[in-house]
Amino acid sequence: MKHFRDLALTTICLSLLCFPAQAQTALEERVNRLEALMQQILDRLDEDEGRLSDDEKMLLEQAETIVSLKEQVEEASDMMEATSAEAEAQSIEIAALKEIGQLDLEIPDKGFNIGKVKVNYGGYIKTDVQVTDFSDGDPFGLSTIINNFYIPSQVPVSATGMGTTDLHINARETRFFFTTQALVGGHKVGTRIELDFLVSTDGNEVISNSYNPRMRHAFFTIDNWLFGQTWTTFQNVGALPENIDFIGPAEGTIFGRQPMVRYTKGPWQFAIENPESRITTNTGGTITSDDGFLPDFVARYNHKSDIGSFTAAALVRELRLENETVDASALSWGISLSGKINVGEKDDFRFMANAGDGLGRYVGVGVVNGAVIDENGDLDAIASYSGFGSFRHFWTDKWRSNATLSYFKASNPVDLTTTGVTDEVYSGHLNLLYSPVSNLTFGGEVMYARRALESGLAGDMTRFQFSAQYGF
C-alpha cells in the first residue's frame, strides 16, 4: 500500500507540474467517481459488515488513499499558486522600476540565489570594424576617443583640406555587469556594477591591445532611493536610437554618467548630481573647474501610454570658477523633451529636443563649454539648442534598419570665445541589422558628420562600420 501511495503521489504531482490545469480537472473528476464508489461500498458494509470480498477491500483502501492524496495535492497546488503570484508581483515591480528609470539598465531573467539574495550577471561582447574618411586631417592617436566612437568635437577642421582614411578594429565596447536584489530589513535593496574598456588609454595597438576596465555604473537602490554613479537623471537613455556607433546622434543628445543621489516617486524623479564646470577663456582655451559647493539639480517626469513613452526633464546648476584672477559664477539651466512613439506593430520613432543656457558638458559630449570669461572677469553662460530624430523599421522579424538625423547649434559670444570654437554640428546615420537569434546581432552602418567653426571653417567625416555583438 505504501508503494502504491508513493507512486500515486509522484504521478499526480508530475502531472500537475506538466499540465496543471488539465491534470487538476481530470484528477478531480476521477476522485469524485472514486468517492461515490467508496460511499457505495461503505453503505453496503453497514448493511452486511464483514462480507466484503478481497477485491472490494483493496478498492476501498485505494479509494481512501486517492482521497488523501487529493487533499495533499490541493495543499501543494495552493503553495504553487502563492509562489507563482509572488514571482509575478516581483516581475511586475521590476518592470515598473525599469520603466521609470529606477533600474537604469536591462536586468536579464537569469542568475542564481545566494541565501535570500538574487544575483544576476550579463553583458555583451562586441567587435567593431571601422573605415573612416576625414576631410581635414587625422585625429587618430592613443588618447583620441573618436577612433572608438563618434565625438562631435573631435571631427578635424583645418584650412589645409588634406584628408586621411583609417581602418580601425576593436572590441573595446565589450562590457560586463553584476547585479543583486534582496529584501533587507523589510526594504527592497538592489546593486549594480558595470565595467567596459571603451575609453581607457593604458593599452596600445602595437602588440597586445590590452586595455584596463573602467567603471561605468556603480550604485545601490533602497526602496525609492538611488545612491552612486549611473546615467544622469537629465538623460533619457530609452530614447537613444539603435545605432551601431556607441552613442549615435552624439551632438543631439543629453549624455553623461555621474555620481548622484536620486529619489523616485511614481513617474517623478528628483536628483542632486555631481557638479563640474567647463569654462572657455578669452583666448579660446578651456578650464575645467570643480569649484563651488552646490550640486546640479535635476527634476524629471516619465509618462507611458499606448502610443509610446515620453520624458520631460529640467536642469538647474551653478557654473563657478575660482582662481588667482577670477572668482565668478553663472546660473545654468536646461530642458529636454524626449521619447519613443510606436509606429505600427513593431516600428518606432525616437526623438529628443534640448535647449538651455550653459548646458555645456551635458549635451553633445561636451561639444561646447558651459560659459566664457568676459572682460570683467564674470562668467557668461553659452546658450545652445540641439536634438535628433530616428525612425526604426523592421523589414522582417530578423532584419531591421534605423535612419537617424542629429543637429547641434551654439550661440557663442565670439568677441569672448574667439572664432575657433564650434558653431554647429550635424550628422546622419543609416544602418541594417540582422539578428538570427535575440542575443546575436550583425550589422553595417554608414555615418556622415560635419562640424563648422565660428570662423567658417568646416570639416567632415564619413564612416563605414561593421559590428558583431553577442549578449549573455
Question: Your description of this structure?
Answer:
With 472 residues, the chain is α+β, with helices and mostly antiparallel strands. It has two domains: 2-89, no CATH class; 101-471, Porin. Helices cover 20% and strands 46% of the residues. The protein has helices at residues 2-18, 20-47, 54-100, 414-417, and strands spanning 112-114, 117-134, 164-170, 175-184, 187-196, 214-222, 225-231, 257-265, 268-273, 277-280, 286-289, 296-305, 308-322, 327-343, 347-357, 371-373, 379-381, 383-394, 399-411, 422-437, 440-453, 458-471. Helix 1 packs antiparallel against helix 2, helix 1 packs parallel to helix 3 and helix 2 (20-47) packs antiparallel against helix 3 (54-100). Mean pLDDT is 84; it is low at 1-23 and 79-108.
Itemize the secondary structure elements and their pairings.
Blueprint: H1 2-18, H2 20-47, H3 54-100, E1 112-114, E2 117-134, E3 164-170, E4 175-184, E5 187-196, E6 214-222, E7 225-231, E8 257-265, E9 268-273, E10 277-280, E11 286-289, E12 296-305, E13 308-322, E14 327-343, E15 347-357, E16 371-373, E17 379-381, E18 383-394, E19 399-411, H4 414-417, E20 422-437, E21 440-453, E22 458-471
Parallel strand pairs: 10-16
Antiparallel strand pairs: 1-2, 2-3, 2-4, 2-22, 4-5, 5-6, 6-7, 7-8, 8-9, 9-12, 10-11, 12-13, 13-14, 14-15, 15-18, 16-17, 18-19, 19-20, 20-21, 21-22
